[in-house]
Amino acid sequence: MVAKVYCGLSGGVDSALAAALLVEQGYDVTAVYMRNWSRDLPGFRCPWAQELADAERVAVTLGIDLEVWDCEAEYKATVVDYLVDAYAHGYTPNPDVMCNQTVKFGTFLERALDAGADFVATGHYGRVERSADGRVRLLRALDEHKDQTYFLWRVGEEALARTLLPVGEIRDKAEVRRMCAERGLGVENKPDSDGICFVGPVGIRTFLLDSLERRSGDVVEWETGRVLGRHDGAFLFTVGQRRGLDLGGGPARYVVNTDVEKNVVYVTADHDSPALFCREVTLEDVRWISGEAPVGGRYLVRTRHTGELREAELDGAVLRFEEPVRRVAPGQSAVVYDGVRCLGGGIVTK
Amino acid sequence: MRDVYLDYAAATPVDPEVTAAMLAYLTERFWNPSAPYAHAREVRDDVERARGTVARLIGARPDCLVFTAGATEANNLAFAAVEGHVVVDAIEHESVLACAATHARRTVRVGPDGLVDPAAVARAIRPDTELVSVELANGEIGCVQPVRELSRVVAAERARRLEAGETTPIYLHTDASQAAGVLSVNVATLGVDLLTLSAAKIYGPKQVGVLWASEEVRLRPLVYGGGQEGGVRSGTENVAGIVGFARALELACERRAEESRRLAGLRERLREALLARVPDMVVSGPKNPKRRLPGLLHVAFPGVEARRLVIALERRGVSVGTGSACAASRMRVSHVLEAIGMPRALAEGSLRLTMGRGTTEEDVDYAANAIAEAVCAEVSRRTVHASSIVAPDRKN
After folding, report:
1. Which of A280, B47, B95, B273 is paired with A102 by a 20 to 30 Å CA distance?
2. What is the secondary structure of B292-308 as a DSSP string?
3. Could you report the per-residue pLDDT of B108-150, keeping only the tens digit for each?
4. Are the beta carbons of B388 and A63 separated by less than 8 Å?
């Protein structure tokens, strides 16, 4: 019997091609549009009606069913509330990492399996390798510039075993668009979506100020302790940030640290200040895709989506870099690779 | 591939004669009607001539007309004239329902064919009711409301108040935007106190509308400024739009009788062709041809999603609507279909097919074939799919 796949269809280019390729490979494909939480205020509106219409156009063109699944409650609880709570405590989280773990490869996968699916699929740039010994591994996408394994490190092997990522096998994004155009899917000219989808065009600052209490505090010079100005809440700032500091002119200044308890933002005018660099990061909430921690030793590490892969020594929950690297904001993911293979990672502590 | 447009209730192309009438006011006759020199007085006269034309065609006095930026604004203006209780029916256009929501109100239910029962309106009227608003023809299922009978209901209430020495006024408003191309919109014949028209539905430009109000009604402005339109609607007159509107209404009145007959013929041709190919198709709206718009066919296909049909049809060059445009973008079942008691599943399989001046018999035949094919393809896809699903074992 033909394997049954539930493919997440977002209305974008990548998932459209994923669905098309699966249909061509002979799978019995059902498309699912996951309706996530969006704020119903002026300026906050995610254009989901338009996205759904695009997804529908793709489904009709491919001659497959499109179901709309309401994932609002899970999304709100595990992604939006998590994001706000993390910021309130002085962290800079990656909501996409949580969305993948709890919604796309959580709720969506569970509901699909309940509905009789053999696999789920998405348009993520990543590759799932199934080896002869029955183990399943996550590899970086062929297109290194679009690789999204940085957001997939919390998806366990069990979930990956049920996952197909057809787009990860394609050389580059231009090829993806060309293949969409060839198939008449009507989405090939849509722009890449970046940033946090539910925040929309207003930006994270406006979003946070709508969710958290504005709290005026001091901006303090790191080296001297001198008060340089005021801010609207330390939770709005993140290590290394330059923009959004309203200090009335003067040299560019960078956030060195934030203290959400005392509500102080520390800054420096020195772009090369040692306080902006670190030699090691300590991880919490560590997860390994295989379920087993890798042996200590040298691995490749990425601390930012599509950021540079750097060599580091893994020692328990500590990553030691060869040479000083720019400080990583607490709450960000550090993802560990062995060659092209994504092993897992952790959340950077304060 | 043929390109067939079947959504004239959403938008009509501007008639070449209308474009010709408007063109001069977009180019050399650009003057501001309020300016003091001779050229400006000329365009002021042209605006007044256009006002006179519209007034004559609806049987009204020119000074009782207010040009607006479309029917939605005209409806808003009508509701702003009263402060008290209002009565509307459940299948009014969003602009009327939204205005009614700002007043104390009673929403009258409609029958399964969408028609308003005048007796129900009579029961809904309270001693403090100041406005009754019922659309002349509904743009989604095409029912033509008994506005004349409603005017008798309102007149009876007015007589009762006079008798009882009550001074609260009561007015009847009708939005005739969807009707003007095919039905008479004479205010005296209809017996209304306020009437809305839109140029955009009668082969005129978008964003031009008019509100007629009888001398009894005191309109209150929503847009303040230079005091144009008798102080009720400030802002420099949309001269080209107003002139185009007048020409469009003239053409509509000239061609009304013949065009209505022709459209009714096309509608029947489409209905029969579709019914022959898809026997379980459900046709909505009143059975009586006098009670429905001649060029509108509302159909529903059980077990099929209309949103998918729209896409499949667009690929065959056929543009159709699924209901009022606002409802479609919000991904919920139209309030009109809900109000006539159509089951949700059937409502989701509904298409609104509207024909107009550009529609030919060949268009209708092509569209009927394309729709039937698209429906059959969807039905067979779903059947194949359903049969391939193996019933899961029930362990408990």
Report:
1. A280
2. B-TTEEEEE-TT--HHH
3. 999 999 999 999 999 999 999 999 999 999 999 999 999 999 9
4. no
